[in-house]
Amino acid sequence: DAGVTQSPTHLIKTRGQHVTLRCSPISGHKSVSWYQQVLGQGPQFIFQYYEKEERGRGNFPDRFSARQFPNYSSELNVNALLLGDSALYLCASSPISGRYTGELFFGEGSRLTVL
Amino acid sequence: AQSVTQLGSHVSVSEGALVLLRCNYSSSVPPYLFWYVQYPNQGLQLLLKYTSAATLVKGINGFEAEFKKSETSFHLTKPSAHMSDAAEYFCAVSEGTGGFKTIFGAGTRLFVKA
């Protein structure tokens, strides 16, 4: 079975540009979460979507937005990129059935470099 | 609000020695707790999870962790380190009553010496 897939794997942008990152969850998983991992730090929670609705949001500016599609795939959008947005962006899906346990299945990540 | 504190950003052990990685959590409700491992340039992989069943949890690759409510701890151990255990380890917590957020610690890098 395919795991969580993310695209692109690497990308380079310049300050002020916009970026869209994509994620396909494991088949049957209806929840997708996004995390930002700056080099040398733990993953920081950005968003969580379940059944196409935002269910959780971390302490990130409004330049960050996301959505989930009917097939449960998801996009993370970041506008007006700053140097500090350079990071590994991780997508994770969850097999929510009744109660959310917090167990996450991660993709390999999209490494964003902002110049 | 939930939070996780991992004591020690770096831990170094000899091959064959005991591995002990420390994690303390804060949660206003009964938590679900996790340990994840991350190898260079990869995503995170679940090692083990505590979801209010047995307090001693066994995971993959010989790792285990014990949930101690009185100490608000969830330390990760492995009796004998292997070179392949060298990686970054993250402790994480989520609220077990419908919260939709999993919070990670800052991570502990494990070095294994030959």
SSE layout and pairing:
The complex is a heterodimer of chains A (115) and B (114).
Chain A: E1 5-7, E2 10-13, E3 19-24, E4 31-37, E5 44-50, E6 53-57, E7 64-68, E8 74-78, E9 87-94, E10 105-106, E11 110-114
Parallel strand pairs in A: 2-11
Antiparallel strand pairs in A: 1-3, 3-8, 4-5, 4-9, 5-6, 7-8, 9-10, 9-11
Chain B: E1 3-7, E2 10-14, E3 19-26, E4 31-38, E5 44-50, E6 56-58, E7 64-68, E8 73-78, E9 87-95, E10 102-104, E11 108-113
Parallel strand pairs in B: 2-11
Antiparallel strand pairs in B: 1-3, 3-8, 4-5, 4-9, 6-7, 7-8, 9-10, 9-11
Question: What is the gist of this entry?
Answer:
The complex is a heterodimer of chains A (115) and B (114). By secondary structure, chain A is mostly beta strands.
* SSE pattern of chain A: EEEEEEEEEEE
Strand content of chain A: over 45%
Number of DSSP-assigned strands of chain A:
11
Q: Assign a percent range to the helix content of chain A.
A: under 10%
The structural class of chain A is mainly beta
Keywords for this entry:
heterodimer, A: 115 residues, mainly beta, seven-stranded mixed sheet, four-stranded antiparallel sheet, 0% helix, 50% strand, globular, B: 114 residues, six-stranded mixed sheet, five-stranded antiparallel sheet
Please explain how this structure is put together.
The complex is a heterodimer of chains A (115) and B (114). Chain A is mainly beta and 115 residues long. Chain A contains no helices and eleven strands. By secondary structure, chain B is mostly beta strands. In chain B, strands 2, 4, 5, 9, 10 and 11 form a six-stranded mixed β-sheet that branches. A five-stranded antiparallel β-sheet of chain B has the order 1-3-8-7-6, with no helix packed on it. The radius of gyration of chain B is 14 Å and the shape is globular. The model of chain B has no long low-confidence stretch (mean pLDDT 91). The interface between A and B is medium-sized, with 27 and 26 residues.
